[in-house]
Structure formats: C-alpha cells, structure tokens
Design brief:
This protein is α/β, with parallel strands linked by helices. It is about 35% helix and about 20% strand. The structure holds ligand 4BW.
C-alpha cells in the first residue's frame, strides 16, 4: 500500500524541475501560422509558448488552434496560413507561475495543463515544467515511502 505525506513536497525547488527556455521549442508573436505549424510538426509537440523578441511570454499556440482558425464555411482556407500571425489566434490564457510558487500549486495546475510556463517577475520566459517531470517526482516519492 502506498502512502504519501504532503510535507515531502514543501521542499521541492521548482528550479530543479525546469526545462530551461533555451531547450523549449517556441514561436514569436509576429510569426505566420505557417511558420508556427512547421515548428509544431517538426518538434512533435502539440502546443508551444509564444514569445516576443525580448523573450516575454504572450501566449500559447497549438496545432488545434491553427487548424481551427483555418476552418471556413465550406473548406479549409489554407491561404490563411500565410495571412495570419500567431498573435491573432494564440491562446492568451496561459498557465504560468514564478519560481517562488509551491510545487503543490504546480501539481494542481498540471491536472488541466500538460505544461506550466515559468516567468520571472517582469514576465520574461524562463522555461516550462511538464506534466512528465511532475509525475516522475511524485512517483519517486511514492517509491520511497
Ligand atoms: O519530442 C518529444 N520528445 C520526448 N522525449 N517526449 C515527447 C516528445 N513529444 C511528445 N512527447 C511526450 C512527452 O511525454 O508526449 C507527451 C505529450 O506531448 P505534447 O505536450 O502533447 O506535445 C509529453 O509529455 P510532457 O513531457 O509532460 O510534455 C507536456 C507538454 O509540454 C507537451 C508539449 O506541449 C510541451 N513541451 C514539452 N517539452 C517541450 C514542450 N514544448 C516545447 N519544447 C519542449 N522542449
């Protein structure tokens, strides 16, 4: 029988779970949907962060958002891939924390979000914490009990 104490998570340092910004696939606000779709398909990820040239976080873009934005009444309007910019369709409801937040907070957010963005106090993007990394930590603690 597994048991898990809430206390074991109080000391978790979010920095230890971070996939740093330089390793995270991303697109820029002014990129076309065509470029974003290329990044998503080539990286294999479903969704990635949208940043500006100063690395400030503005939103998330996903394959589904892009495909949805191409839907016309009777056909898929692929010409929109070159006409629209990422910032026109991106999701601005971003799951995000700073490194001062608790692991419990991030664990709760990961129920609804496959990754959580980490920003500094000025909103500059520092990286992501993925559901995979979170679950690995929980499993490691379960096995230690
Ligand atoms: O290219 C991949 N490499 C590896 N090692 N695993 C992958 C890859 N693509 C997908 N996966 C696996 C991971 O377990 O499938 C899960 C779901 O991927 P997703 O959501 O739907 O593309 C992955 O789970 P995860 O590691 O917990 O990552 C959750 C989500 O975080 C991913 C993706 O949207 C984002 N993500 C993860 N690493 C990223 C990233 N986005 C940009 N750059 C990265 N390096």
């Amino acid at each position: 029988m597994y048991s898990l104490q809430r206390d074991v998570f109080f000391d978790v340092n979010l920095e230890d779970l971070l996939i740093s910004a330089d390793k995270v696939a991303h697109v820029q606000v002014g990129n076309t949907l065509e470029h974003a779709l290329l990044v998503l398909v080539k990286s294999g990820y479903t969704a990635v962060p949208v940043l500006d040239s100063a690395f400030k976080l503005h939103g998330l873009i996903s394959k589904n958002i892009i495909l949805d934005s191409l839907l016309g009444v009777e056909r898929i309007e692929t010409e929109k891939l070159a006409e629209y910019n990422v910032e026109e369709v991106m999701d601005t409801n971003i799951p995000q924390v700073t490194l001062n937040h608790t692991f419990i907070k991030v664990l709760g957010m990961s129920i609804n979000h496959p990754f959580i963005c980490v920003v500094d106090e000025e909103g500059a993007f520092e990286g992501i914490i993925t559901r995979r990394v979170i679950l690995k930590l929980v499993i490691r603690h379960l096995n230690q009990e």
